[in-house]
Automatic annotation (TrEMBL):
Name of the featured protein: Polyketide cyclase
Entry-linked InterPro entries: ASHA1/2-like_C, START-like_dom_sf
Organism: Pseudomonas frederiksbergensis
Family: Belongs to the AHA1 family.
CDD domains the record matches: SRPBCC_CalC_Aha1-like_3
Chain ranges of the Activator of Hsp90 ATPase homologue 1/2-like C-terminal domain: 22-157
Pfam family, one: AHSA1
Length: 163
């Protein structure tokens, strides 16, 4: 078994969400790594993502701007730590491009895509730097927000995206 597919123990300050998706993992990986696709599903229902930039290499930028219906904006910026197509993505907000510390790291994220006979077991893990950050993320609506984003991702890869 390759190292990226080894079942990991939960991190001390982790939140996660998993779902079996009726789509091949290559499509889901594309939806995660092509900005024109990511902007179609990133964020909870009612949110838009008018900006997305990605440099798909270790140390490359991962930047999004989500916008709420009331006009509030939620920027994120970080770097990719690991990219194993089409199995795994890991990124963090602990650094900005150039490996410059971000000042206030909140979390690192890991997305794994496990082949299940043409379907994909999707798991997204948000690993926080402290229990306080984990609790804050949960209070912000992690499960609902990431779940709604996942609903939008599933719709894209099963209905709105060519093979």
């Amino acid at each position: 078994m390759s190292p990226q597919l080894v079942k990991r123990q939960p991190a001390p300050f982790e939140l996660s969400i998993s779902r079996l998706i009726d789509a091949p993992r290559r499509k889901i990986f594309r939806a995660w790594t092509e900005p024109a696709l990511l902007v179609q599903w990133w964020g909870p229902h009612g949110m838009t993502t008018p900006e997305c930039e990605m440099d798909l290499w270790v140390g490359g930028q991962f930047r999004t701007l989500m916008r709420a219906p009331d006009g509030s904006e939620y920027p994120t910026m970080g770097v990719f730590l690991e990219i194993v197509a089409p199995e795994r993505l890991v990124f963090t907000d602990a650094f900005i491009p150039g490996w410059i510390p971000s000042g206030k790291p909140f979390m690192s994220a890991e997305v794994t895509l496990e082949d299940q006979g043409g379907k994909t077991l999707y798991t997204a893990r948000a690993m926080h730097w402290s229990e306080e950050d984990r609790q804050a993320h949960e209070a912000m609506g992690f499960h609902d927000g990431w779940g709604q984003s996942l609903d939008r991702l599933v719709t894209l890869v099963t209905e709105g995206m060519p093979d």
